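[step 3/7] inverse_fold.run input=structure_tokens len=112
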């Protein structure tokens, strides 16, 4: 069974959207992405969090937002932070390399 991964950043237009694009056709996963800000392309919600087996956030404040707004779901989900700052454009070559390197490392280490 494929692992359901939710990628989260602030407005779901650069980092999480790029991660979604990179991994959407990966046979290992089902992928969704969302943002924590009300202006996000897809704003994070209870339904998305409930769907996900694991949540991958780009910065600590994304994890904190989930903990604050959805404490019950926060307690039951594996959440990993990649520590990728908001300084890249959608599908930026450096962002793709960072996302793949950090996400694959998280997988290798069995954190999800």
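[step 3/7] decode complete -> sequence:
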């Amino acid at each position: 069974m494929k692992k359901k991964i939710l990628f989260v950043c602030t407005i779901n237009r650069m980092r999480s959207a790029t991660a979604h694009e990179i991994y959407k056709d990966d046979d290992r996963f089902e992928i969704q992405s969302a943002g924590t800000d009300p202006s996000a392309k897809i704003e994070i919600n209870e339904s998305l969090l409930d769907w996900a087996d694991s949540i991958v956030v780009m910065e600590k404040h994304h994890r904190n937002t989930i903990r604050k707004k959805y404490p019950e779901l926060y307690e039951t989900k594996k959440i990993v932070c990649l520590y990728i700052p908001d300084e890249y454009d959608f599908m930026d070559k450096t962002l793709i390399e960072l996302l793949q390197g950090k996400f694959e490392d998280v997988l290798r280490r069995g954190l999800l």
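[step 4/7] annotate
The mean pLDDT is 97.
The radius of gyration is 13 Å.
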